[in-house]
Amino acid sequence: MRKENSDLLTTRGILKPERAPVLFDLKQLIPTAHFAAQVEFYWSVTWDIIPDQTFEQKVLSHPNLHVVIEPERAYIAGIPSACYTRALKGSGRAHSIKLLPGMATTLLPGAAKDYTDKERPLADIFDAHEVQELQQRILNSTSEEQRREYFERFLTTHMTSPRDAHHRAQRYVELIQNTPEIIHVEALAKQVHESVRTLQRLFTAHVGVSPKWVIKRYRLHEAAEQLETNPDKSVAEIAQELGYFDQAHFSNEFKSFTGESPSHYQSRTSET
User: Fold this and answer.
1) What is the largest CA-CA distance in the chain?
2) Is 99:38 a contact under the CB 8 Å cutoff?
3) pTM for this structure?
4) What pLDDT sits at residue 8?
5) Neighbours of 221 (CB within 10 A)
6) What's the rounded Cα separation, in Å, for the pair 261 and 235?
7) Residue 256 binned pLDDT confidence (cut-offs 50, 70, 90)
8) pLDDT digits 0-9 by tens, 30-60
9) What are residue 26's DSSP bridge partners?
10) Which of 4, 40, 59, 177 is deepest in the core (most CB within 10 A)?
11) Tally of CB atoms within 10 A around 200
């Protein structure tokens, strides 16, 4: 679902930390019309950590692949299948293309699954001189609009037009995201008139994770948000609203992805 720039800054999937000795500046910009079907947005983030401190940010990632440019490296960031933690020290910055779910293979060779849980140097896939030039231009740019221009020059050279399979994969991920009632792959298959096996192959090729993973991940995004914003609502109530008929199952799944129980997460984040 396309959002305007003013609506892009969302924290869903970013788990609240114990403490935040850090200043973040996050900027996002939607693509031009030519790439609107393949790119969700471009983002830039800078950070400045309190001296002698380390900041650890946990993230329940969305099913997107990123092209990331940092001062020290340029790389493809595949989808982390587990909760992703990044430890930050000092100051730094990163600039990225966030591809829409299902569109990775309009830019990258192979299957989207090949990049899951990996960070691959951009120069392993594209010409090293061209990557170095892109990195320098992105880092030297003075505005998000200028960075978008350089990113889109790169995409124009390398990105192919999406085929039907790409559009279907993107549409099915969006359907899962916007339809909380879909809690099983079988329900998705029935709604889109595809077999479960076809969906599994489609997601492996073009999303990078299984449809079951996507369903669980969006439910956990909703769970974390509910736990943060509803301190008076019981874990059992939240679990039931999200389609978990067994609170223990919900608690185990939440802890397996985030490293803490939903009750602990709720009590901790309601105090911050």
Assistant:
1) 56
2) yes
3) 0.87
4) 43
5) 19
6) 10
7) confident
8) 999 999 999 999 999 888 887 777 777 777 8
9) 45
10) 40
11) 16
